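Standup notes, protein team

Yesterday: finished cleaning the Gluconobacter cerevisiae set.
Today: CDP-diacylglycerol--glycerol-3-phosphate 3-phosphatidyltransferase structure.
Blockers: none.

Input for CDP-diacylglycerol--glycerol-3-phosphate 3-phosphatidyltransferase:
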Amino acid sequence: MLTDLPNILTLLRIASIPVLVALLSVHSPTANVIACVVYTAACITDYLDGALARRWQQLSELGRMMDPIADKLLVGSLLLALAGLTQLPVYSLYAAIIIMIREILVSGLREYMASQRETLPSTRLAKWKTGIQMVAIGFLIGGDGAAGMLGLSFLPATMIGGIFLWFSVIPTVISGWGYLTAGLTRIMAGQSRKSSKISF
């Protein structure tokens, strides 16, 4: 149900997006530190909603659908905001473009497969991909200004975020290719089954 705590946590992750974008738009170290706190809380809900759903046996199709959507909305919105605010270093804008293309393609594939009554379960590599992306975005949200405010001026947070974002491209592309091949295989198998029933 939508009112189950795991689903509420997922909805809170989505609700944090406009707050984070607004804080980034302020362009101040204080706002960036607050954004990091909000973002960290949002990332924690990504772990808690699944863990609680499994522990309390509140697994549902709604929750299974909403969880990856919330992740994609959070990552995609923040990447767009960071790009618009020119806070993506080391040519990591291109990494963000690759990430967005992959997410849109996989989402479209999932939607088509759902129309064919087929599913495309999430993989462990895809979860690692999301985790690395979230770490990268955390560094990019805080940036050098927040690091300096927290007494970590020696830490090139923005550069680290850009490097992590590029690093996340590896599992992003590999898992995306895996989804594509798995999806096409299932679609072709499903069409073969339908053809055999018709011919019979």
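Follow-up from PR in the comments: The longest helix spans residues 157-199.
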